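To the wet lab folks,

You asked to see what we're planning to order before we commit. Fair enough. Below is the target structure as tokens, and below that is the sequence we designed to fit it. If anything looks off to you, flag it before the synthesis order goes out.
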């Protein structure tokens, strides 16, 4: 009896399947490792503010320090802000309002702008950083005598601004008990005035609960020239006026 013909198996489909399986596993492992790394970075970044994200608690606080003399060259100051502090809309070098304020005082002034950031909203320049994380990572290590916080219209669509603002203010007051903490609310803008006025009230209430100084641009009747077509950022003249108003507000809280 003749032997049956040996079946010849073409190895190419099998090899292809094996290579495909290997590639899928490799890619899956790489993606998983990459996601784990990404997740740990996100957790590390956002979790760094966990000490600040405590429940609001009662509105009890020690008296806040007065703003020191603007001519005192030994004063260290730090500032947190958004695109306004970045100088968006300014038309000349160092034309932003915070640069003009820094030039007008004798303090050692360190501004930390983060476009797009707010008390709740994360910024663009330091991604994943809100005002709380900027306070923890940038301001507190300087041990400044003055902390200035500005804004922010970026928080307009966000819930929980009052509680979060209070948490940031209380954290700074606890970590820097001898510092003068001055908060500037949102700047009035014609096209979104009602929304900004509501946001201003939330930040003002958070500041009052924490016992820090608050400059209320609405209450003071500030009129800042803004860029056209619904842009909330100041023009150069708007930055010039804003700088003068901020300096006036700082003097109001001086000893």
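Sequence we intend to order:
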């Amino acid at each position: 009896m003749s032997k049956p013909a040996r079946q010849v198996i073409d190895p190419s489909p099998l090899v292809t399947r094996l290579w495909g399986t290997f590639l899928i596993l490799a890619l899956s492992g790489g993606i998983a490792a990459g996601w784990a790394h990404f997740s740990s970075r996100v957790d590390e970044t956002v979790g760094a503010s966990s000490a600040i994200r405590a429940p609001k608690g009662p509105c009890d606080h020690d008296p806040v320090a007065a703003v020191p003399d603007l001519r005192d060259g030994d004063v260290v100051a730090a500032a947190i802000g958004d695109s306004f502090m970045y100088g968006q809309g300014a038309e000349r070098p160092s034309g932003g309002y915070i640069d003009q304020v820094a030039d007008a005082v004798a303090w050692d002034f360190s501004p930390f702008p983060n476009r797009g950031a707010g008390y709740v909203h994360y910024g663009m320049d330091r991604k994943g950083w809100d005002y709380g994380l900027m306070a923890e990572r940038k301001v507190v290590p300087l041990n400044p005598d003055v902390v200035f916080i500005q804004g922010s219209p970026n928080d307009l669509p966000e819930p929980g601004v009052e509680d979060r603002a209070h948490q940031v203010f209380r954290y700074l007051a606890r970590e820097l008990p001898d510092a003068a903490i001055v908060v500037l609310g949102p700047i009035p803008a014609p096209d979104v005035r009602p929304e900004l006025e509501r946001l201003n009230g939330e930040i003002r209430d958070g500041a009052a609960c924490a016992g820090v100084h608050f400059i209320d641009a609405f209450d003071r009747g500030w009129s800042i020239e803004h860029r056209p077509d619904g842009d909330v950022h100041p023009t150069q003249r708007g930055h010039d006026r804003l700088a003068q108003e901020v300096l006036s507000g700082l003097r109001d809280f001086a000893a």
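Structural context that might help your review: The longest helix spans residues 11-47. The CA atoms of residues 122 and 163 lie 16 Å apart.

Thanks,
Computational group
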